[in-house]
Structure formats: structure tokens, C-alpha cells
Amino acid sequence: MDITFDMFIETEVPEDEVIISRTDLKGVITYVNETFANISGYAPEELIGKPHNILRHPDMPRSAFKDMWETIQAGKTWEGYVKNMRKDRGYYWVYAVISGVYKEGKLVEYKSIRSPVPEEKRIEMQRLYDRMRLEEGENVRAVMYLGTETYEKLKKRADEEETSVERLIASLCG
Ligand SMILES: Cc1cc2nc3c(=O)[nH]c(=O)nc-3n(C[C@H](O)[C@H](O)[C@H](O)COP(=O)(O)O)c2cc1C
């Protein structure tokens, strides 16, 4: 199936561990600590060398990352709430502090240090990001229950057309 239940399973971020990653200046991961790997569900070697958007959750509005990149590229620190997608498509929320790493005064990398987000804040941010995506004309999250037969037909047709069920539904709408 395309849409698995795993997507709705949240992983709790531990209170007492630091969660760190570093990237090159283009956002390619150069380092992750063990806690980071555990929470994301990937092995460190699966993450190193990959663009950091490997963790991007479709619930995140594009404008949040645009603001993040503009801030860090201007040499400032960006702080904000990020919902990430795990390897198994589950999710976790972090409060991230992202800034430059300097060697002899020269910007060489970026680093991100993360901490857990209280449950009420996660709910507030989910609502805010849903609203932002809607206002910015991005993806809308639509969860639906289809009859097995209907789903099987959609899936068969999507497979035949070498596309996904989501894209097939979009194309059926013209
Ligand atoms: C140090 C650092 C850490 C980042 N951490 C994350 C992260 O945890 N999750 C995420 O989705 N993007 C993270 N990003 C931003 C990604 O590079 C990327 O801009 C974002 O996922 C949006 O993907 P897109 O640019 O392909 O739309 C990080 C960037 C930097 C520089």
C-alpha cells in the first residue's frame, strides 16, 4: 500500500540526550550523533552524504525552510519547530537551533542542535503549519477510508501507469 499506518505513529524525543547533526554549506549531512540516528530510524551511514531533506515531512511548509536558509546564510542563528519524517514514515517533533560552524573565522559547515517539544506546542505548531501550507497553496493532508475494491482498482491503475495513487487521483481531477 502507498499510504501506511506508520505515518501516524509519533516517536517521543528523549529529554536528556543531545541530538546533533552537521551539514556542508549546501545542506548535505556530514555528521549525526547516535541519538539523532536512533530517533530518525536510519543508521548513521545511511544519513551521511545525503541531503538533509531526506527527513523532510510533507506537513512542513516550504516557507519555514526558506526562512531558515535565509537566516543561516546571513550568518544568524535560526530557531524553530520542525516535524521530521522517520525512515519508517513515522514522525517526531524537535525544536531546532541551527547556526554556522566557523574555522579560523571562516564559515565551513552548519550545525543543528535539537530538543524535545512539549505536547501542547506540537499541537499548536501542527495547526499553524497546516494553515501556512493551505495559505501558501501547498499540499493538503487528506486522510480517507476507501473500500478495498476501490483502492485495489486505483492501485492497479496507478501501477499500470507507473505512478502513485496520489498522482493518479490528481490526474483524474484534470
Ligand atoms: C544544519 C541543518 C539541519 C537541518 N535539519 C533539517 C531537519 O531536521 N529536517 C528537515 O526537514 N530539514 C532540515 N534542514 C533543511 C534541509 O536542508 C532542507 O532545506 C529542507 O528539508 C527542505 O527541503 P527542500 O529544500 O528540498 O524543500 C536542515 C538544514 C541544515 C543546514
Describe the structure.
Helix content is 35%, strand content 23%. The protein has helices at residues 34-40, 44-47, 62-73, 119-135, 148-160, 165-172; strands at 19-23, 29-32, 78-85, 91-103, 106-115. The two termini are 24 Å apart. It folds into two domains: 5-135, PAS domain (Beta-Lactamase, 2-Layer Sandwich), CATH 3.30.450; 144-174. The chain has a five-stranded antiparallel beta sheet. By secondary structure, the chain is α+β, with helices and mostly antiparallel strands. The chain is elongated and about 60 Å long. Bound molecules: flavin mononucleotide (FMN). Flavin mononucleotide binds next to strand 1, helix 3, strand 3 and strand 5. Flavin mononucleotide is lined by residues 21, 23, 27, 52-53, 55-56, 60, 62, 65, 82, 84, 98, 110-112.
Features of this protein?
single chain, 174 residues, alpha+beta, Beta-Lactamase, 2 domains, 23% strand, binds flavin mononucleotide
Strand order of the largest sheet: 2-1-5-4-3
Number of strands: 5
Number of helices: 6
Sequence stretches where pLDDT stays below 50 over 5 or more residues: none
Name of the CATH class of the largest domain: Alpha Beta
The fraction of residues assigned to DSSP E strands is: 15-25%
Apparent shape: elongated
CATH topology assignment of the largest domain: Beta-Lactamase
Order of helices and strands: EEHHHEEEHHH
Helical content (DSSP H or I, runs of 4+):
25-40%
Distance from N terminus to C terminus (CA atoms, Å) equals: 24 Å
Q: Could you name the CATH homologous superfamily of the largest domain?
A: PAS domain
Largest sheet: 5 strands, antiparallel
The residue-averaged pLDDT reads 95
The CATH architecture of the largest domain is 2-Layer Sandwich
Question: What number of domains?
Answer: 2
Backbone structural class: alpha+beta
Bound molecules: flavin mononucleotide
Q: Determine Rg (CA atoms, Å).
A: 18 Å
